[in-house]
Amino acid sequence: MNSVIRQQRALITGASSGIGKETALAFAKAGINLVLIGRDQQKLATVAAMAADLGVSAQAYPLDLADIPEVAPNIAKIAQESGPIDILINNAGMGYTNSLADTPLSDWQRVIDLNLTSVYQCVQGILPAMRQQGGGTIINVSSIAADNFFPDWGAYSVSKAGLVAFSRILAIEERANAIRITIIIPGAVNTPIWDSDSVKADFDRSAMLTPDIIAQAILQAVLLPKQAVVETMTIMPSAGAL
Fewer Cβ atoms within 10 A, N terminus or C terminus of the chain? Predict the structure, then answer.
């Protein structure tokens, strides 16, 4: 199996830390070549070097997915430079807390742009080549906030619920092209998202899932035989929701 997997190449967004970083390393251990996307060039280069040490090709491309008009053409260009992309992991996103009444329009648009619209643009950038090569796998990382509603998480929940709807429609539309779509729905994961200025929340991070757990779930979905697909995978802390 490993000889077949070794020929595959995955493009991972948000690859410089958290779930993206751990997914890159899990894929590298499985022999999957990597194209890594992230904003932090130095952190991205470090992850690429760690992956290369595991014996795979790992290319790093600094890219700000918040620059929406440039996402699809940049992703298409990167895919053309790197070679065929068999797997697309849409992981990049941001956390945000504020009541809906107090959420400025600019913040609302920023959350929707990064968590939803940038995914749509990454997919548009990669789909033509993926169709041409006869198939592929797209994994979109959502959140339990898509279907479990918490006060002050309105903009974030809407963005993640939209991502679920987008993914399910995409799955139907691309089935004939042998492109599998998987939605990963994690509970709380201990990532740098909790340290960001846009999130004001006080949870017990020791009770959260760790990024490597989500990475292993993503890898399992990718390694399924091509005639099978995990449509939706929910991964929760065994202690339940925080």
Answer: N
